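Retro notes, item 3 of 5
We never archived the inputs for the flavin-adenine dinucleotide complex last cycle. Fixing that now. Sequence and ligand:
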Amino acid sequence: MDNLLNIPGIEISTGKEDLLCYSFDASNAEAALPMAVAWPRKTDEVARIIKHAYENNLGIISRGAGTGMAGASVPRGRGIVLSFEKMKKILDVDTRNMTVVVEPGVINGRLQKELEYLGFFYPPDPASLNTCTIGGNVATNAGGPRALKYGVTRDYVMGIEAVIPDGAVISTGGKTHKRVVGYDLKGLLVGSEGTLAAITKIRLKMLPLPEDIITLLVLFSDLEASGTAVAKIISSKVIPRTMELLDRSSIEAIENYKPTGLPADVDALLLIELDGYPATIKKEAERVVDICNTLRGEVIVAEDTMARERLWEARRSISPALYHLKPTKINEDIVVPRDKVPAVLVELRKLSESSGIKIISFGHAGDGNIHVNIMVDVNNKEEYRKGRELVKKVFEITLKLGGSISGEHGIGLMKAPYLNMEVKEKELGLMRGIKGVFDPKGIMNPGKIFG
Ligand SMILES: Cc1cc2nc3c(=O)[nH]c(=O)nc-3n(C[C@H](O)[C@H](O)[C@H](O)COP(=O)(O)OP(=O)(O)OC[C@H]3O[C@@H](n4cnc5c(N)ncnc54)[C@H](O)[C@@H]3O)c2cc1C
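Structure as it came back at the time:
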């Protein structure tokens, strides 16, 4: 092995077969081999790897499970991938203070299950929860269906231990539920996409497990009515824990891929879930049903846990299902104010019709966070070019409606060219300044966010 990449006591590989496995993520970002992949087992090892990179001007690409949708863990330049898959311990569950400390490589779904077993609840639930890591979730500030009621990852991060580029270990935040001492460094690290520091330990807030859940499937013969229902339910002061929207094309894609019994002859459906005390959510469910009925929505109640799981399985199978329609999906996770959900859905459908390219919309409609999937074939150069051109149009529609170009996936490589459509020069200057303070040599995740 090249001496530059030989860090004594560290598990590190330059084997082509290893490099290939860490050269891509779940986005369409062009794969690129890193110089090496390292698998630290504790903070001290992370610090030694990063110090070595700092002294030798090598990039550091922190990596969780590589489920990111923005190319943020895809290597660029000369660098070492720092894979956190071997730092996967749940270190401490403090039931009196309702906090849990984890290493970054813990899989989200595993944490959920272990806490549920103890009667506790960690709400952030990206649809990739069975694969993605808590470190990746913190670094992307991941959301998920339950963000509507419970917020996103940021709302649960109480403390972070991290290694900054000169190899120093910093600790920010802690066990207290309140803290106002200087600038919020923890807040800066959440959503920083590995560009400021490598996160080595996280303290998270947990909640009591809700007493009961009601799951409703609402079928609409008109896409716009489903968007109107979302806005009306929220303005009636009912906050469901999820309100997931699937349009007609998404439903067709799921049923063609893995039939789950979803009706194919509707224009859109909402998957609505309420949680809390049984008497309260029963009343809330009645209100939701009334609103949906006035919009001619047909409501079906999931009778038991199995029926509920079947519906969620269908929702989570949408991503793989879309690949059966076209080999390439350009996936944008735009977000608009809730009352603009009907308008954005109509605009996206018009864009699809006028361009002749299939655009499939689904997602966390309760937050206004719509996943827009532009379906093309990367091998059909003309189609792929047209698809990529639509991305800018989708962002223009979104920003005109007061929205944002990313609700949860972040900027990474894929959205870097569009960052200045939303963030203006002064604010960009401040962001670059922060990056420079943390990382003066620019070794942390080169090429990400700012291009
Ligand atoms: C099918 C599917 C469904 C998805 N659904 C959702 C969803 O509902 N909501 C949502 O928000 N996202 C969703 N995603 C996107 C993705 O799962 C999230 O962004 C997730 O948080 C990434 O976690 P990861 O462990 O895979 O991180 P990676 O993809 O490996 O990395 C993502 C970013 O985090 C950084 N990073 C990772 N670990 C660390 C660390 N320890 N220290 C510093 N930086 C680090 C990386 O450098 C990179 O910038 C989905 C993805 C897929 C494939």
